[in-house]
Amino acid sequence: MNKSGQTTLVLISVLFSIFQAIVEHDHFFTIDFLIFTTIAWVVGWQYDRTRYYGKQARASEESYKQLIDSLPKAIFIHYNNKVIYANKATVFMLGADSMDGLIGISLYDFILPEYHERMVERLKQVKKGKRPLINTEYKAKRFDGTFFFFEGSSMSITFRGKDAVLSIGKDVTERKEQTEQLLQKSEKLALLGQMAAGIAHEIRNPLTSIKGFIQLFKVEKHQDEYYDIVLSELDRINNIVGEFLVLAKPTAAVFAEKDVRELIKDVVTLINTQSILSNVQIFVEFESDLPKISCEENQLKQVFLNLLKNAIESMPSGGTIDVKVKEKEEGKISIQIIDQGIGIPKERIPTLGEPFYTTKEKGTGLGLMTCYKIIESHNGELLISSQVNEGTTIDIILPTIIQPVFILS
Asked: What is the pLDDT of residues 352-370, one digit of tens each?
């Protein structure tokens, strides 16, 4: 430890005593000399000690900073939710020009609003204990406006004499995207397996019937009545494969501006023959001044056709179907198809749209699944509500084309 302060103060005391002895002809070794010299010695020692430990603390802080800067993870220290220190990894992660560009900025400027409550709760937990908290995830924003996911932990520390919080973590956006992709692949594989099992089951039933009738052809002479049954079963297989191909085959959809009233009128005209034979009447009600939509015409017609066909088949004793088209809110249009059919049990509604899950005796569920897929591709929603023995309401919500408003000045 350097004793320059102690030596200087003692030397000053000695020189002062010599000065008094020469000028005032006093004795050199007096009580005052001993007291002042002792005081100078103690104060000088304390001064040197304080300076030594201050220098050690500064050296330790500098080493601490160098260590933090060398770490690959983002580390930043904050006090009252404001950054007071950040390492190079943090500067790079946030896209700042330098550490000075981060100092004094609030954490709330980076963390997205929907994660603020999570951060507040975490900081409360940090203040209660001295141990690091388990990792948690936040969605944050860089200086250039791009978003990323940050996963990190925090702990309470003392920094520059303040009770601050040290947070350490890393950008996990790439890992999260890979996880999402793996989950999507897993879901697709599970769906593919489910569909494969369903197709095998659905096709095996008519094949069993066909096989049985072919065996009957060998032993019986009057076989004409069996041909119709075999042909109907073959048609059933063809329909199953056809529905699957419509669902699976990628199509290059060409979106164009269309009037939804014209689409519905065309579909109602097309299906009127079937509805009349089934003793079902279709009533269509359009709100005036309906905005146009951007859609793939044939795909939407397929949706309306499937849903109207389902509504007709749900009323074996006949009834009415109401089609109501209105503007739901600005930028959205609602198409409701309301029937008086047998309805769907409440517990089965969440599973509608899954492959091979259907309320029909000979249905495959692929038709409704196709409807969901098409409406989703149009950035819309398909909502189903139903009461057993009362009927079903299907609400299709689609975005509209917002026409520009010209203001004359």
From this structure: 766 544 555 444 456 788 7
pTM, entire model: 0.43
Q: Which helix (H) or strand (E) holds 69?
A: helix 31-70
Domain boundaries, the chain: 4-67, 72-171, 177-248, 256-399
- Architecture in CATH of 177-248: Orthogonal Bundle (1.10)
Instruction: With CA atoms as reference, report the closest residue to 150 among 162, 132, 136, 161.
Output: 136
Q: What's the token pair of residue 36?
A: 């002042």
Residue whose pair of structure tokens reads 């989950």 in the numeric block:
183
The position carrying tokens 């200086």 is 143
Report whether 5 contacts 51 (CB < 8 A): yes
Q: Contact, 164 vs 151, CB < 8 A? A: no
The C-alpha R_g of the chain, in whole angstroms, comes to: 41
pLDDT at res. 198: 60
Contact indicator for 214, 231 with CB cutoff of 8 Å: no
- Reported residue count of the chain is 409
Q: Order of strands, edge to edge, in the sheet holding 136-141? A: 82-86, 74-79, 162-171, 147-159, 136-141
Q: Is 132 exposed, middle or buried (CB count within 10 Å of its CB: 0-12, 13-18, 19+)?
A: middle
Residue 153 neighbours by CB under 8 Å, 6+ apart: 132, 133, 134, 135, 136, 167, 168, 169
Architecture of domain 72-171: 2-Layer Sandwich (3.30)
Rounded distance between C-alpha atoms, residue 45 and residue 5, angstroms: 7
Which of 107, 118, 113 lies closest to 166 in space, CA to CA? 107
Q: Is 57 helix (H, G, I), strand (E, B) or coil?
A: helix
pLDDT digits (tens, 9 = 90+) for 280-308: 999 999 998 889 998 888 888 888 988 99
What is the phi/psi pair of residue 156, to 5°? Answer: -80, 135
Cα 143 to Cα 73: distance, rounded to the nearest angstrom:
19
Q: Report how far apart, in Å, the C-alpha atoms of 248 and of each of 244, 257, 298, 306 are.
A: 6, 26, 16, 17
